[in-house]
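User: structure tokens for Ribonuclease G, please.
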Amino acid sequence: MSTELLVNVTPSETRVALVDHGMLQEVHIERQAKRGIVGNIYKGKISRVLPGMQAAFVDIGMDKAAFLHASDIVPHTECVDVQEKHHFQARNIAELVRQGQDIMVQVVKDPISTKGARLTTDITLPSRYLVFMPGSAHVGVSQRIESEEERERLKNIVSRHVDELGGFIIRTAAEGVGERELEQDTVFLKRLWRKVLERRGKYKPCSVLYEDLSLAFRILRDFVGTELDRIRVDSRLTFEQLKQFTEEFVPELNPKLDYYSGESPIFDMYDVENEIQRALERKVELKSGGYLIIDQTEAMTTVDINTGAFVGHRNLEETIFNTNLEATAAIARQLRLRNLGGIIIIDFIDMQSDDHRRRVLQSLEQALAKDRAKTSVNGFSQLGLVEMTRKRTRESLEHVLCAECPECKGRGRVKTVESVCFEILREVLRVNRAYDADRFVVYASLAVAEALHVEESHSLAELEVFIGKEVKVQAEPLYSQEQFDVVMM
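Assistant: Done. Predicted tokens:
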């Protein structure tokens, strides 16, 4: 079996699936309407200089002129790990730019409402592990990489690739990454920058020199160096664009590109659609009959393992151990597939044997080794829980595809029909005490109205006797289970 990238393209959405040995491992989704222009590089033209605002308006070929402040006309900033930065003293805007001048700029803020995009001349190009800084001669290391030994190792590797074109910032994601991957990033970024410089000489003002890569291109960039057998694309236009992109920037991936022209949708062929649906459910079935329960909250994600129908063939301890062992691979896959980040608490079934605990932990770490996001696993806590973290790289699958339930408001539960019935009876009593009414009409959902007429009819009758007034119940098909109104007549 092979490792494949499947690229599904529609006018409004692009989806990329990583399938390894027939199993879906990752899903990436990008909606066209949510794509901004931050990161794009333009050859602009100064349309107006405003000395009073210390700013200039720049025509970059959009409906609204973009905004460039004097403080954003800067040389490349010093690297993040250099103690003393050389601060650039912004002179008068009129000394820095003039009307009609061509200028290369990068968007740092999308246009909003009546305001145009915010620009800078301090251009940077990001890749997965590095940020390229044209014109700089330094290598910086993210401050979030704390190990001095690791910082020095990364700096030594990347420093060999600094030349007259520019320097680099090493991103947090580079921690623990091998020399080959880092070198591939430096080669990619330099190719990209040379292409931008070439376009600056050829293109007219108000042209795009570089667009921040869309999903399909970013994925190819990020998968350079990984073991991919085939990249299948179901859009002829996107396939041709990717072909050109790989020829220019990542030639090693070019032979692996394949245009998919089958009649069945590409995601259906590999059962990706069904896997995505299953990845939105709380319960994950294990082949043995056991199962996981995954709950994602604002603070953390919890994973609970249960033996379910799995009874094993030997003793209970062996059954528990085998279920936990099987769960480790399923957990690692679900974290990638659902893109769950932050703190993750795993509640394995209690094991008495220290050897079993050690082997389960080892199995979990091995399964997580395939994850491209950084993970860190702590041992079993005193309560028998495994605490781990996974670096947040983007929104989780649930957050991309789902919204808060309008009925339960994110609780994940709704009140029972019985609870709502009793709430209605209490509300009738409250309203009767507060106001003078001849009778009441209760509007409720179909299920609640039926319960008040059948199971709770005696409670309703007792209430009518107690308050000495008629209470009529009317079903409202559009009401949710918790929704009701008590109307005085």
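User: Anything notable?

Assistant: The chain has four domains: 3-34+220-273, 41-212, 280-401, 417-488.
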